[in-house]
Specification:
Number of strands: 27
Strand content: 5-15%
Radius of gyration: 33 Å
Largest sheet: 3 strands, antiparallel
Distance between the termini: 129 Å
Strand order of the largest sheet: 1-2-3
CATH superfamily of the domain at 13-43 and 67-148: Classic Zinc Finger
Structural class: alpha+beta
CATH topology of the domain at 13-43 and 67-148: Double Stranded RNA Binding Domain
């Protein structure tokens, strides 16, 4: 008669054993894998314990999952694994870092965390030699070499290298925004986005430049800043060879060759090469002006416009012409001015071939071919080719005459009438 085999079940709360089976021993809870974002372990080879105990006959390895969590119904093959899982529900974190006091569910997780203090990176990529703190981070990195994307969206089939990425992607289909800011209530799809947003309220800038000490809210902003010191431009356009500091800038530039405008305004259908341009354009429909001047309170649709305006208070003109030294408020104004020295006229009319120094002048000129008059008077409805023309016209309704003759003092509403008058002198 076969002797009853000893059970590994300890007196655990919330344990349901669904069927009798072979005993299940295995590693202690503190040696099991810590849950990570893409489902891999964080243990190093020396941390890995044996699997659940087998019968003396190694061919009789049990694969059943007989132990069920009564809270979430997840099933486990061993009580030790169930015991570790239960800590997620109880919030128990018995292992703490001796350096900073941060607590963890498993001993292996605290060991992985300790490497952030020691700088140890024991796992290295066999392809490029890059080293990592955790085995899971190495596995994720290796997929950049192999192109492996093991996680797929159940709705659209799009594949991802990381489980966390597919989970974030799924919110596009569900519209779910489970993370909310405790200060203003704004909701986010991803916890990382919410955490970045929270720094607006706290003023926290955890990333500092090692060269000049300037601090940043986001790592990506610091990385971008660092290239100012190094002058590095690792990304080049395959069409024209132009080089870029950031991959995203290179990708945006590539669209100018392809003519691609993937970002479309949902209100008017206008398409844009860059997402940021589309978002800025959307504010014109909403009337939103989120950027305000701290000196006079004037509000602006774009941050760059507010920053340019702020210089009018400071009298700052940071951009200077390398030829004549003339200084400008705006970089674009300086670049346009530089063309007066070079004679460059990069903007040409597609109808008649006439070339212009400024894109805005070329666009105004094209209206003479199309007959378009986009500017209309709100008082009488009269339409105009140019914005300056409607501004002059509006003065006839308001009876404004801001332009005066330097000879006799007579005042006029438009530059053209003043010019005609000046000829009489």
């Amino acid at each position: 008669m076969r002797e009853a085999e000893p059970s590994c079940s300890s007196s655990l709360p919330h344990v349901t054993r669904e069927a009798d089976g072979d005993h299940c021993g295995g590693p202690q809870a503190d040696d099991l894998l810590a849950p990570l974002s893409d489902g891999d372990d964080t243990t190093s080879p020396e941390d890995e314990g044996s699997d659940c105990n087998q019968d003396s006959d190694s061919s009789k390895k049990k694969t059943g999952k007989h132990f069920t969590c009564s809270v979430c119904d997840k099933r486990f093959s061993c009580t030790s694994k169930l015991a570790q899982h239960m800590k997620i529900h109880t919030g128990e974190k018995p292992f703490s870092c001796s350096n900073c006091g941060k607590s963890f569910i498993t001993k292996s997780a605290v060991r992985s965390h300790m490497r952030t203090h020691t700088g140890e990176k024991p796992f290295s990529c066999s392809h490029c030699g890059k080293s990592f703190t955790t085995k899971s981070a190495l596995r994720s990195h290796v997929r950049t070499h192999t192109g492996e994307k093991p996680f797929s969206c159940s709705d659209c089939g799009k594949r991802f290298a990381l489980k966390s990425h597919v989970q974030n992607h799924m919110t596009i289909h569900t519209g779910e925004k489970p993370f909310s800011c405790s200060d203003c209530g704004k909701r986010f799809t991803q916890m990382s986005s919410m955490q970045k947003h929270m720094r607006i309220h706290t003023g926290e800038k955890p990333y500092g430049c090692s060269d000049c000490g300037k601090r940043f809210t986001q790592k990506s902003s610091m990385d971008k800043h660092m290239t100012m010191h190094t002058g590095e431009k690792p990304y080049s356009c395959s069409d024209c060879g132009k080089r870029f500091t950031l991959k995203s800038n290179m990708q945006s530039h590539m669209r100018t060759h392809a003519g691609e405008k993937p970002f479309r305004c949902s209100d008017c259908g206008k398409c844009f090469t860059h997402k940021s341009n589309m978002q800025s354009h959307m504010r014109t429909h909403a009337g939103e002006k989120p950027f305000s001047c701290s000196d006079c309170g004037k509000s602006f649709t774009h941050k760059s416009n507010m920053q340019s305006h702020m210089r009018t208070h400071a009298g700052e003109k940071p951009f200077s012409c390398s030829e004549c030294g003339k200084r400008f408020l705006l970089k674009q104004s300086m670049l346009s001015h530089m063309r007066t020295h070079t004679g460059e006229k990069p903007f040409s009319c597609s109808d008649c071939g006439k070339c212009f120094t400024l894109k805005s002048r070329m666009q105004s000129h094209r209206r003479t071919h199309t007959g378009e008059k986009p500017f209309s008077c709100s008082e009488c409805g009269k339409r105009f080719l140019h914005k300056r023309s409607i501004l002059s016209h509006m003065r006839t309704h308001k009876r404004e005459k801001p332009l005066s003759c330097s000879n006799c003092g007579d005042t006029f509403s438009s530059q053209s009438t003043l010019h005609e008058h000046m000829q009489s002198h």
